[in-house]
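pasting for the record
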Amino acid sequence: MTVKEYVQKIQSKELSVEEGVLLFTKNIEEKNKELNAFIEIFDCKDQVKKVQERVDKGEVLPLAGVSVAVKDNILIKGEKCSAGSKILEGYTATYDATVIEKLRDAGAIFVGRTNMDEFAMGSATETSYAGPAKNPHDTDRVPGGSSGGSIVSVAGDMAPLALGSETGGSIRQPASFCGVVGLKPTYGAVSRYGLIAMASSLDQIGPVGKTVEDVEILFDHIKGKDESDSTSKEYPETKQEDVKKIAYPKGFLEEGIDKDVLENFYKGIEVLKKEGYEVEEVEIPYLNNALALYYIIMPAEASSNLARFDGVRYGLKNDTGDSVQDFFETRGEGFGKEVRRRIMLGTYVLSSGYYDAYYKKAFDVQKAMRKGFQEVFKKYDAIVMPVAPTPAFKIGEKSNDPLQMYLSDIFTVSANLVGIPGISVPNGTVEREGKDLPVGFQILAPHFKENRLFALGKKIERV
């Protein structure tokens, strides 16, 4: 069932909320031990009772009884939230994130908090304190990250919808690896209030689903301005648009990408051409610098944001009797290897003597890249490219080589740096060791033009 069909069955009393939720919680119980998609599974009885009462009173709920898996860095009042870390192990949220409030009002049921890379730092969901999540298409392989648990919950039929968050591809890349649809909205389109931040100028909460239509429905219920988040914006009224011209980047796709993944991407382009779209190769200024920019700006912001985890206010505390020593020991024990690496890198680029050489220069090039994308979007309605240079890789294959791990984000980070929306749509498979592994097709559009992504995404998924 699509989400729309499911809600119709709930509203017509053909299916009770309890029966609907059980369809998915049974799958969670059966599959989670192997896939490790959920860090915690919630007891949903109170939620189910409240939603059923609202349905019985005749209230029309657009997400009545729909199970939603929630990434472990989005706050749900009264539930634990650890961001996949040891340092926040046992922390209980004292308020709902805005997206949670909106979905609760719409009748959604939150079934659990999903596994993720520690503080969203990773591309494989391997750095989680709860252990790695696994790809349902091949459990020897990663699901991608950092929203791997949310993506696996949908790909493994443990929830029809999920919330993830993205800083540089953390929804789109795992969506590609696991064969589902993942959307990174326009920066500011969805409130970040109640999201544990990694890099505040790049982070964005986004929806995950089996189909483009399902993702569109979830997005429509979480978008919009929020007074609690000064970076959020009023979402403009969506109008029907005639999308005609599509671009893909010139001279950027040939290096470091698996041959069959690139061939798969070109097949997607042929689909769009057959549908009547003009698809042309173009030069996108500064696109080749995107990964380098990202790994200067992101660690700088992350090191600042993670300074709050000091063993004083909440989370893990090592009490040595010396406040300074408490700070060092708490952070040394509480943060994992990848998080410590990025804190050190971020502190370095922000330090006196290096700020101008690295961070300021990266910030200037980022502004130039934004202008470059704006120029392309004056002539073209959308940009397409692969999601990742490879299909899902083996667990542990890149964990000791951070540079190779970072390269898996090469096609996704530009959307976060520029603030534009991007979507990953399943686009066939490639074979590895006798198994068919999903590959995604990525579509980017100008700010607040998610409707173009949905329109083009539906064309791709029909094939």
